[in-house]
């Protein structure tokens, strides 16, 4: 057995070049790119899940069974018109089934906010729908004067929003984790060769 030859072979191994560090960054870049795609595609679709109503006023919506949330949009755009309010007090939201039966409306159990595409909203009411169908949703100030503003009605909106955000962040963190692992591998490989 030629031990000297074996040692010469180990000593002749080349360390990975510094260019490998640049390649190690690729997973992080890909992770942030995936995050951007997830957020861009999903957040642009979330707007479609919110039905806007200019109030005081009313609108009939086709709703599916389940819990629906009413958001007050402090900043909003409807048909090219900008609506902006700082505070709204006394706004009463009512929901009626197609047969005129009232649907119970109550305050949300927690705080929910969103800001996207020039729109900023806060959850002010929730209501439950037992059967799919047409429902009339109205809001006014009970005969008192109040600013014209916009409410938006959506189902599962906050869950979809959080899923999009955390999905995007997960892709970014995974990319950073893989990039860190690759960079560490390059560093250790270079160090082993130098020590030999």
If helices are DSSP runs of H or I spanning 4 or more residues, what is the number of helices? 4
Biggest β-sheet description: 7 strands, antiparallel
Low-confidence stretches: 1-11
Shape: elongated
Q: What structural category characterises the helix and strand content?
A: alpha+beta
Report mean pLDDT, rounded to a whole number. Answer: 82
Short key terms for the protein model shown above:
38% helix; 196 residues; 35% strand; 4-stranded antiparallel sheet; 7-stranded antiparallel sheet; elongated; alpha+beta
Task: Lay out the secondary structure.
Blueprint: H1 3-11, H2 19-24, H3 26-46, E1 51-55, E2 57-63, E3 66-78, E4 81-84, E5 92-97, E6 102-103, E7 105-106, E8 113-116, E9 119-129, E10 133-140, E11 149-154, H4 157-195
Antiparallel strand pairs: 1-11, 2-10, 3-4, 3-9, 3-11, 5-6, 5-10, 7-9, 8-9
Helix pairs in contact: 3-4
Overall description:
The chain has 196 residues and is α+β, with helices and mostly antiparallel strands. The protein has four helices and eleven strands. The chain has helices at 3-11, 19-24, 26-46, 157-195, and strands spanning 51-55, 57-63, 66-78, 81-84, 92-97, 102-103, 105-106, 113-116, 119-129, 133-140, 149-154. The strands form two sheets. Strands 1, 3, 4, 7, 8, 9 and 11 form a seven-stranded antiparallel β-sheet that branches. A four-stranded antiparallel β-sheet has the order 2-10-5-6, with no helix packed on it. It starts with a helix and ends with a helix.
């Amino acid at each position: 057995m030629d031990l000297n030859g074996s040692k010469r072979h180990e000593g002749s191994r080349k360390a990975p070049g510094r260019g490998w560090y640049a390649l190690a960054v690729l997973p992080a870049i890909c992770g942030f790119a995936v995050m951007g795609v997830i957020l861009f595609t999903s957040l642009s679709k979330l707007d479609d899940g919110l039905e806007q109503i200019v109030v005081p006023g009313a609108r009939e919506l086709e709703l599916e069974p389940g819990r629906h949330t009413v958001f007050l949009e402090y900043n909003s755009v409807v048909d090219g018109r900008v609506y902006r309010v700082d505070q709204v007090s006394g706004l009463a939201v009512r929901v009626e089934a197609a047969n005129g039966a009232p649907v119970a409306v109550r305050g949300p159990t927690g705080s929910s906010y969103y800001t996207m595409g020039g729109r900023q909203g806060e959850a002010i009411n929730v209501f439950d729908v037992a059967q799919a169908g047409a429902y009339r949703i109205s809001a006014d100030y009970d005969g008192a004067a109040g600013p014209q503003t916009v409410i938006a009605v959506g189902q599962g909106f906050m869950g979809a929003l959080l899923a999009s955000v955390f999905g995007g962040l997960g892709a970014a963190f995974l990319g950073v984790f893989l990039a860190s692992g690759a960079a560490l591998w390059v560093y250790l490989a270079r160090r082993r060769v130098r020590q030999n």
